[in-house]
Design brief:
- The structure is a single chain.
- The chain is of the alpha/beta class.
- The protein is built from ten helices and 14 strands.
- A hairpin with a 4-residue loop joins strand 3 and strand 4.
- Pfam families: OCD_Mu_crystall (PF02423).
Length: 324
């Protein structure tokens, strides 16, 4: 009789902290892993919806995902009052699970995992949309970034890795935060400067990475053929871009079902019934070459964050840290 393999004890599970997550998932590696997943078995339309539950002073957020080899769940807490106390608004962990036995394999920093997978997914979308630009993509893209938090910082880092010839300008509500972000980038050898909303018409790429619930700029000002990524918010009551931009743009979404549930940037501009009829391209279709851009129109990528992305990066971190 063959002995049954023991499941790892909880105390024996490897833990990957923030530094380990960053080391195992550099930007180009993370983007390549997401693209391989989309070219393989991952279908964003089959992704599990995120689950919310009340918590003291905030809420719990659970994001489960399943795959052939690995499954997992990200467990986060959202505490809106924390920033005023000098604490992080969102905190949590990721539990990676063996799909065959459902045994836990590892635990890792869920906040850092989010900080990596979101920009990696955005830049996968932006780079592929740029590649489909009528007449070819700009040799030196001008990138305008809205936001001065960790997502803005990491989106510039990821954009620099994927678009090494790009120039960067950063727009934020608090000039001191913008200057701190620019200084942090300078220490890493990435040049950026303070930007202004008035630069929107001249940008080739606009990255919206804010917590704003109101549009950041007039969508009529966006240049023809420009690429805009609105990824800082999720929820039907939150938006970073206006209906004008949505209606004049080609649209790419992470997943159509997730966009209908949570993409506040899209739903006010058109009804759910209209979006079902339009059927905008999702990420899988984008990387498979299914986007035909309309000459003279901007292209808007609307991202809300999906559980399959966490699973792809968590597997990358685990394999990089345990299979050496």
């Amino acid at each position: 009789m063959t002995a049954k393999a023991e499941s790892p004890k909880t105390a024996d599970l490897p833990y990957f902290g923030a530094a380990a997550v960053r080391t195992a998932a550099p930007w180009t590696t993370a983007v390549a892993a997401l693209e391989r997943a989309l070219l393989g078995a991952v279908d964003p339309e089959q992704d599990s919806p995120r689950l919310f539950s009340p918590a003291p002073g905030g809420e719990f957020l659970l994001m489960p995902a399943s795959g052939a080899g690995y499954s997992g769940v990200k467990a986060l807490t959202v505490a809106p009052g924390n920033p005023a106390r000098g604490l992080e608004k969102i905190q949590g962990v990721y539990v990676l699970i063996d799909s065959d036995t459902l045994a836990p394999l590892a635990v890792m920093d869920g906040t850092e995992l989010t900080s990596v997978r979101t920009p990696a997914t955005t830049l996968l979308a932006v780079s592929r949309i740029l590649a489909a630009t009528p007449g070819g993509q700009p040799e030196r893209p001008r990138v305008l970034v809205f936001g001065a938090g960790i997502q803005a910082l990491n989106h510039v880092r990821a954009a620099h890795a994927l678009l090494p010839e790009a120039s960067f300008a950063v727009v934020g509500r608090r000039p001191e935060r913008v200057r701190e972000l620019i200084a942090a980038l300078a220490e890493e050898g990435i040049d950026a400067r303070e930007g202004r909303v008035e630069e929107v018409p001249h940008a080739d790429v606009v990255l919206c990475t804010t917590t704003s619930t109101a549009p950041l700029f007039d969508g009529a000002l966006v240049a023809p053929n420009a690429v805009i990524a609105a990824v800082g918010q999720h929820g039907l009551d939150a938006r970073e871009v206006d209906a004008t931009l949505v209606r004049r743009s080609d649209i790419v979404v992470e997943g159509r079902a997730s966009a209908l549930r949570e993409a506040g940037d899209l739903i006010p501009a058109r009804s759910a019934e209209e979006w079902k009829a339009i059927k905008p391209a999702n990420l899988r279709e984008l990387v498979q070459g299914g986007l035909a851009r309309t000459p003279g129109r901007p292209c808007l990528y609307a991202g809300v964050g999906m559980a399959w992305e966490d699973l792809v990066i968590a597997a990358l971190v685990y394999e990089g840290g345990t299979r050496k």
